[in-house]
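Render this sequence as a predicted structure.
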Amino acid sequence: MDGLKHNIAVGVLFIYHWLKGQGHYYYKGAIEDSATAEISRSQVWQWIYHRATLEDNSETITRHMTHTLIGLFIEQCCHLVEFSTETERMLLETAAGIFNEIITRRDFPEFITTYLNLEHTFLEKNMS
């Protein structure tokens, strides 16, 4: 479960920072960027698609489970981080929605950055 939660956090936070115009960020003492976000979202997509099970309790990783974990992550962030503006909080929620969209698609988006540029470039302009 820890690996799944970590991958969700890395993916959501990368999209959040991408929406803010930043290409990398620090998370748990490591520099994260598009490469680690690719690995994270790819693993989560594969785990859902192939119905992988968690090692700790043999529960199957599903869309519903990941959606719930994304929501819990956003809730934690909103309690731990003081956003300087309401727009920043909204960007985090938007990033979570986009990450959920990416990992639950039937087809596997080739690259996260390409997907974001093609599908969501308007968000940064409209959220500023």
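Summary. Residues 45 and 105 are 8 Å apart (CA to CA). Helices lie at 2-19, 34-49, 63-80, 86-104, 112-127.
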